[in-house]
Amino acid sequence: MGPEHVTEAESRDFALEKGCLLCGGELQVRVGPTGAGTFCGRCHWISRPHMHRTDDGIHVVHPAGLVG
User: Which of 2, 12, 51, 66 is in Cβ range 3.0-4.6 Å of 36 for a Cys bridge?
Assistant: First the structure.
């Protein structure tokens, strides 16, 4: 089996331990071609953070004015 090839149209899911800004719970993150979405299973916070792609990776940012 050859190496896996991922296209930009695919979504990536990952979790950030203690990543929720509201309660400190684990934050589930989905990054796709149209942006990012997050969900906290502890406090049920759902957000659409800003996403910036750079040479060193993807940066997911919650602007201070959009918290809460």
Answer: 51
